[in-house]
Design brief:
Number of helices: 3
Distance between the termini: 30 Å
Strand content: under 5%
Helix content: 40-55%
Structural class: mainly alpha
Shape: elongated
């Protein structure tokens, strides 16, 4: 049973790795051109602070904003 559960978890991971992330579609052209993409998961209250830090170190960075809050398990 344990071996079967481990094998199932392994296979699920392999399938998941092979599926492209649709959230990256709008950045695909820039990524293919060699630009870097940072996606940061942080509390909403810290967004402005982190944006300021990034802009302070990389003034030419494009900050695209935040995604809407979606529950993990709808």
């Amino acid at each position: 049973t344990v071996a079967g559960a481990g094998f199932g978890a392994f296979m699920s991971t392999m399938v998941g790795v092979g599926i492209p992330n649709s959230r990256l579609d709008r950045f695909r052209e820039a990524i293919d051109a060699g630009q870097l993409l940072m996606m940061i998961d942080l509390p909403l209250a810290r967004v402005e602070e982190i944006e300021a830090l990034v802009k302070g170190h990389h003034p030419d960075a494009d900050i695209e904003g935040t995604d809407p809050k979606v529950p993990v398990f709808p």
